[in-house]
User: Fold this.
Amino acid sequence: MTFYQGIITITELLMFAMTLHVMNYPGFGRRQKAWFIATFISVMLCAACEYAVHCGYYDPRFALLLRVMTVMQFSVAPVLGILFSGALGLHNQKKVALTYFAVSLIIETAAAPFGLIFYFNDEGYFRGDFFFVYGMLYIFSLIYLLVNMIIVGKKFRHRDISTIVMILIILAAGIAPMTLFKLNITYIAIAISASLCYIYYNDLTQEDIREELVANQNKMTAMQESIISGLANLIESRDTETGEHVARTSNYVKLLSEYAKEDGGYADSITDEFISLMYTMAPMHDIGKIVVPDSILRKPGKLTAEEFEIMKQHAARGGEVVRNVLGGVTDEEYISFAADIATYHHEKWNGKGYPKGLKEEEIPLSARIMAIADVFDALISERCYKKAMPREKAFAIIEEEAGTHFDPKLARVFLDHKEDFV
Assistant:
């Protein structure tokens, strides 16, 4: 009996552990927890009754008590499948469970005095001629559970038929030895299956929650990008642009970042996430123009020294505007990235740019990439104060100012792929 004692002990400990887990698990509501706990405690109750009857220490003086315990076990065990169907989230299972329990209890109570399903004599417990009635109630409950697992699985986008098959195999492996060899390992099989059912349902729930979170995150990202693009286009429209500058420079920085990663010596600095951020945040580069008066932005002629100083404020104020606009909307990494682009894209490699006079690699890489894209597009675009420049001349200016205005390595990459930027 040592083996049997070990089996029952493991069953009780497993169900007790699962009960504690469910009680402390925040992923389920009170109603769902109640179903899981009722299932696990019912398995513990049935296993304890089973052990009391079959522990090998039968005493005729306790025949009545053991009969009552067996009636309780035979009444509760067939309801296990229905209890777990309720735990799996199916509606109206409470009524089904109570009805099935009442039917089992009436049958067992009525049959017990006549020894029809089971009986005790001086030697112990024996099955009656109608034991198969209990077996049918029990098997029907397990089939009910398996069918409901499939039904529940259809409610989710991610289904795992292999788990259902394994539960069926484990249950069969636990019931068959009891029937064929009178080896009592049924309840450890039920306990393992109950645990697998719990894991099965929890995995289905968590997978769908994860997918929903990803979908919501994608919606939020798309919303952020739309807000950024719309705001950038609004700012550019004050400068007589209609959004094409924003779209073109976003594509330029994406291409330049990709090529700089491949053959420009920046493979260690430029990641896929960096490229994605460049493309997303590039539209924010001139957001600081919101502080510049229309009289200066739309002036058809050359700016005076005083006017140019005011224009230069858009870089200094750009980072502040970015933080005010994006603060609380996205995370700090995004905000810092966009702020660097807005603040430093007018810095020059030789340190003669603005607003802080940074030089060489003191200038954030994102801003150095943005500088080339911004200047190139400004050169080839018509503005209120100038005509569009031929592309070849614009490329010549980029080449001429490599190492003074622009990062020489980035400028070389840009010029090596002229056709792609055209």
